[in-house]
Specification:
The protein has 337 residues and is an all-alpha fold. The chain has 14 helices and no strands. Helices cover 77% and strands 0% of the residues.
């Protein structure tokens, strides 16, 4: 038996990348149903579920080759293993900070801003580590970056107009309007954007692809990355729960709250698995920007949950421009247009 590593046509691989993004962009709505349940406890459930999903599907598809491939790559070039594992630890810190920000700024504003920053950093890392397809010229990259930066600017402006209008109308959406909270959220957003591209680094360096012949097969790669991610979540979230003496929340809260983390885990790493197989055939510098379409789903859910309720037309127009700008940027850098 060999590792499951199919040669997927580009059109199907592109569709898989978009499907993964829809899963990534939708699981954040679980934050709207958590109440006072600690975010750290939710996060641990998410990544414990992810471990079950990844290793379970891994053994189902690869059998004992799941472990054999990891051992073989370790013998040939152990850096492919430990870099991927460490990247898993690092990127979960970025996601955790992003979840804090989403609870303050909301889904609608957080996603376009961070997605634009992430695609710039992620694409740069992908190109340096994983290789750049010859058709992706410097001019295309610069043009894409300009559109992505415009997306950040107009999205933040839309958020500012939203906050002012909601404060004047005394509309309660569950999001903070405290300037200090918002400033702290923006700082956390910048910090988290420095951590999340570690996912792309691991993808570019640890996964065998058309531009990176050395590395792990798809499911062994996901198993190593997910194990690193769970380790990072256990280290940071476990420490927080221990300091606050909140481990009892797992027992005190019912299954209805625990299932939120399970749903998020299935969507998050289910999307990661699909995205990894797409990356295997597209290269990370192409598949990574496709992930920015997750922002469309997150923004849609933010609007469904009333985050822009009572905002003037100008705020919606700017938000729409933000979506258009970062979609154009991602399309340019993905060679779609």
């Amino acid at each position: 038996m060999v590792n499951f590593d199919p040669n997927i046509p580009n059109l199907i691989a592109l569709s898989m990348g978009l499907l993964a993004a829809s899963m990534w962009g939708s699981w954040f709505i679980t934050l709207k149903h958590m109440g006072d349940y600690p975010l750290e406890a939710f996060y641990l459930t998410l990544f414990l579920t992810s471990m079950g999903v990844v290793w379970g599907i891994g053994f189902l598809l690869d059998g004992n080759q799941l472990v054999v491939n990891i051992k073989d790559i370790w013998a040939q070039d152990p850096s492919r293993i430990y870099v991927t594992f460490i990247c898993g630890i690092i990127y979960v810190v970025g996601i955790q900070l992003t979840l804090y920000v989403m609870q303050i700024l909301g889904l609608t504003i957080t996603q376009p801003v961070q997605a634009s920053v992430n695609v710039i950093a992620g694409t740069a890392i992908s190109g340096l580590i994983g290789g750049v397809p010859p058709e992706l010229t410097t001019g295309r990259i610069i043009t894409a970056v300009v559109f992505l930066l415009l997306a950040v600017i107009v999205s933040m402006l839309a958020g500012r107009i939203r906050n002012v209008s909601q404060m004047s109308a005394n509309i309660i959406t569950g999001l903070s309007r405290d300037p200090h909270d918002i400033t702290r959220a923006v700082i956390l957003l910048v910090i988290s954007s420095a951590f999340i591209p570690a996912y792309t680094l691991g993808l570019s360096y640890g996964l065998r692809s058309i531009t990176q012949p050395a590395g792990l097969a798809p499911m062994p790669f996901m198993a190593v990355l997910c194990t690193g991610a769970f380790t990072g979540a256990l280290l940071f979230c476990g420490s927080a729960l221990s300091i606050r003496k909140q481990w009892g929340v797992f027992r005190n809260f019912g299954f209805n709250i625990h299932r939120l983390g399970m749903i998020a885990g299935f969507a998050h790493y289910g999307g990661n698995i699909i995205h990894t197989f797409a990356t295997r055939n597209l290269s990370s510098v192409v598949s990574w920007p496709l992930g920015i379409t997750a922002g469309l789903w997150t923004q849609m859910w933010g609007l469904v949950y009333g985050e822009f309720k009572g905002s003037p037309k100008k705020a919606y127009v700017l938000l729409g421009l933000g979506v258009i700008f970062y979609m154009i940027g991602a399309s340019i850098i993905s060679n779609i247009i």
